[in-house]
Amino acid sequence: MSICAAGLSLMITVIFCPAAGQTPFPLSVSQDVYQAEQHSNITLTWIFPVSAVRSTDSLIVDIMDVKHMTRIYNYDSETETELYPHELYRGRVLCDPELFMKGRIECVFTDLRLNDTGTYQCVVMFDRYRSYKTCDLNVTAAKDQPAMETSNPVGRERFGLYVGLALFTVVTIALSVRYFRFYKLM
């Protein structure tokens, strides 16, 4: 086969198969980096065009923690099952499959832990097409809450001062009266 024939064959393939090697739908993330504090909640959101979804398509959504290479969430529309395979995330990650057909993937992470920090990847597959996008989650330690000081009312402190001053005055007057009576008798 000559170079011309190979080039012509390649051009025909490219013209008649424009989707070959391309992603049929873009998957985007609402934020590239999410920030949250320990013990708080956060929602990671991925978005794709609704026009990419047809009711006949089989939809698979797979979310994983890239750092630990663990699968967090898996949904398959053909079996209509959703799985939370990793026990560290089970009960703490909630995804709403009803939003998938509207072009949104929202996963709520509850009671965040410091080791939840990392890169998360969402893979969406329609029939034979696939798209994926990653985002980062940074979990910081919760700031210490300042201890509540037990405050004494201002009037209580002054009340003690006034009582002490009054006792001092009464004792001083009593001693003065006794002193003058004693010396007057002499």
TrEMBL record:
Highest taxon of the lineage: Eukaryota
Record-linked InterPro entries: Ig-like_dom_sf (IPR036179), Ig-like_fold (IPR013783)
Keyword tags: Membrane, Signal, Transmembrane, Transmembrane helix
Keyword Transit peptide: no
Signal peptide: 1-21
Transmembrane portions of the chain: 159-180
Protein's UniProt name: Programmed cell death 1 ligand 1
